[in-house]
Amino acid sequence: MKSSKQWLPVIVGLVATPFTLLLALSSAGAGHGDYFWAKVFYPYTMLSAMAFGSITIPFIVVAILELSAYGVVIGTGWSQGKLKLYSAGLLLLHTSAAITCFAIRSENFS
Q1: What are 42-45's contacts with CB under 8 Å, separation 24+?
Q2: Alpha-carbon span 27 to 24, nearest angstrom
Q3: What phi-psi label fits residue 3: left (phi over 0), alpha (psi between -120 and 50 degrees) or beta?
Q4: pTM (predicted TM-score)
Q5: C-alpha gyration radius of the chain
Q6: How does DSSP classify residue 105?
């Protein structure tokens, strides 16, 4: 990344991660919750949980890194003058994954 201001999305992701993880964990309710915020913020991890029947360590790492990775993608788009395209692509992928989480019924992750 060429400019220091392009690290701003990464920093925002790093700062937002603890708050979104806390919301996701609280919605899980020690396994008795509805996982609403987990599905909204971390759909890839939740899709893997539905596939494997549990939330595995590698996908916990994915969740922890997800927002910062989004920041890298957005910062890259910003530096290349394609911020709208990169942002729209991320929004489409993330929203599609989240909608899929809500569309799939899972015995363990309702």
Answers
A1: 42/66, 43/94, 43/97, 43/98, 43/100, 43/101, 44/97
A2: 5
A3: beta
A4: 0.85
A5: 15
A6: -
Question: Is-contact 78 57, C-beta < 8 A?
Answer: no
Q: Which two tokens stand for residue 15?
A: 């700062």
Fill in the amino acid letter for 45.
T
Give CA separation, 21 vs 6, 8, 30, 55, 70, in Å: 24, 20, 14, 14, 15
- Which residues are CB-contacts of 77 (< 8 A; sequence separation ≥ 6)? 83, 84, 85, 86, 87
What single-letter amino acid sits at 85?
Answer: L
Predicted confidence (pLDDT) per residue in 32-65, tens digit: 778 899 999 999 999 998 888 888 899 999 999 9
